[in-house]
């Protein structure tokens, strides 16, 4: 005998959010990330590596602490994420103004890799736009931006990626 699962109608309120927001966002993020990862994998980069390389190309040479601030991540997370890119030869980590600071810049190979990956990223983005519809994507971006502002950490703390 099959047991039928019935919704808890007594506790259902159409104006009250149901379920776990964290779970729903993680499910959406995984689905979106998979879409981008399929395209970017064709370049040998992960989505996170493409993002980091793009920031270095655009802002570099840049101090690690400044890059971490722009990307809203801790310097230790940034350091871990830079290592594979340095091993690929797409970025360089050079000495900075003093013994404790480092400057990060893209190599010529990194510039080319970013251009290649940017084309794949654009294909992925256009696919999302087509699948969800431009209006839904615009609304999603606005909602995310507003939510990020409302949930910003106090005292300029960095988010960890």
TrEMBL record:
Domain HTH marR-type positions: 38-137
GO biological process, one term: response to stress
InterPro entries: HTH_MarR-typ (IPR000835), MarR/SlyA-like (IPR039422), WH-like_DNA-bd_sf (IPR036388), WH_DNA-bd_sf (IPR036390)
Single annotated GO MF: DNA-binding transcription factor activity
Protein name, per record: MarR family transcriptional regulator
Species this chain originates from: Rhodoferax saidenbachensis
Organism phylogeny: Bacteria, Pseudomonadati, Pseudomonadota, Betaproteobacteria, Burkholderiales
